[in-house]
Amino acid sequence: DALSQANALEGGGASRHLLQRAYLNIRAKRDYVAEPLLLEALEAQPGKRATISEELGYLYLRTYRNRQAVEYLTAARNGYREMYLAGRLDGAEAAEKERALRQLIRTVSRRFTLSLYQSINLFEERAGDAKSAFIGSSRHATGELEIGYRPEGLGYRNGSIFNLFLRTFWASRDRGAAILGESLQAGVGIRYKPLAEKNLWLSAERLFKVGGNTADHWMLRTAWSYTQGLEPYASRGKAYLNLYLDVAKLFENTGGTLLFAEGRYGRSYLFGGRWIATPFMYLRGNGEINREDHHLVDAGLGLELRGNGQQAVLAKPYRRLNWGLFLRAGSDLSSDRAKQGFQLNIGFRLSH
C-alpha cells in the first residue's frame, strides 16, 4: 500500500525521492509526514516550485491552516504565470491554473460578501406580497440586498463554509423595479455549507417586520443546487445544466412551508475571454405546501449573460465585481389563477 511504499523509500534520502515519498504519505493520509518532505523538496527542486507550492497549499487547507494555504497557493499561481511567460507551460493549461487558483484563493481568504438582486416581470398585473420575496418567486418581481461575514477560523474549513448575514428583501411594483414599501422585510441569520463537494446550504434566520404587509418570523431554510457547464473554456460552448431546490419553514404568525424549484438545460459560450452567454430552456415552480391557492409552475426559454473573470492572457492579480443579466420568457403550466398567463422576466445580480 501507499504507506509501505513510502517507508521503503525513506532510507534513500535522495532529493528525487522526496516528492514521491510526500505523495505516498498524502495518499496514506499522513499529512504531518508529507509536510516536511514537501518543504524540503521545495528547496531541493526549484524547477517544480509551482507544483510543490500548490500541493502544500492543499495540505494546509486540509489541516485548516488557511493563512499558510493562501501563501503557498499564491506562490503556485505566480509560479505557473512565470512558467507560462517563459514558454514552459501551455497557454490553455496556464489559463485554467490561473482561474482555478484565483477562485480558490478568493474563496478561502474572503471575509465579507455583498450581493444585490432584482427581477422585473413585464407582464405582471398584480404586485407580490411579502412572502413572494422570502425565497424567490416565479411570478412576482422581487429584490434582495445582502451583506455577509465569514469569521476567521470558522468561515472556511476545507470546503465547509459558515456565514453570518444581514439582508433586506422586497417585492416590486407592477411591471417595474420600484420597491413595494409594504413588502419590505429585514433578516439576520447564520448560513452553513457542511459538505465540501456539494452545494448544500442550511440556514436559520430571524425575520423582522418592516413594511405594513410583513410579520416577524423565525425561518429555517435548506437550499441545494447542482451546476455543470457554467464556465466553458472553448468558444464552441459546453452543455449547461442547473438544478435548484429551496425549501423554507416559517414559524410564528402564519407559519407555512415555502418551496421553490427550477431546472435549466442549455449551452454556455465563452466570448471576449471574460464573459459567458447561456441560452437555456427552463421549468420552474414555487408555492406554499398544503395551499393550493398559492402556486405557479411555468416553462420557457431564457438567456443569461455573466462576467466570467477568465482572461486569455495571464495578468496581475485583481479584484472583480461578479455580475449577471438575465431574460426569461415562458408560459404558465399550472397556476392558482383562473386564467393562466405569459411570463416575461428581466433582471440582474451583482456580487462581490
Account of the 3D structure:
There is one protein chain. With 352 residues, this protein is an alpha+beta fold. Helix content is 24%, strand content 42%. It has a twelve-stranded antiparallel barrel with strand order 1-2-4-5-6-7-8-9-10-11-12-13. A hairpin with a 5-residue loop joins strand 5 and strand 6 (199-209). The longest helix has 20 residues, at 66-85. The protein is elongated and about 75 Å long. The two termini are 45 Å apart.
Structural class from helices and strands? alpha+beta
Strand content: 35-45%
Mean pLDDT reading: 84
Helix content percent band: 10-25%
Low-confidence region ranges? 309-318
Q: Please give the largest β-sheet.
A: 12 strands, antiparallel, barrel
Number of helices: 6
Radius of gyration: 24 Å
| Through-space gap between termini | 45 Å
User: What's the SSE pattern?
Assistant: HHHHHHEEEEEEEEEEEEE
By DSSP, the count of extended strands is 13
Q: Looking at the structure, what is the overall shape?
A: elongated
Assembly state: single chain
Task: List its traits.
twelve-stranded antiparallel beta barrel, alpha+beta, single chain, 6 helices, about 350 residues
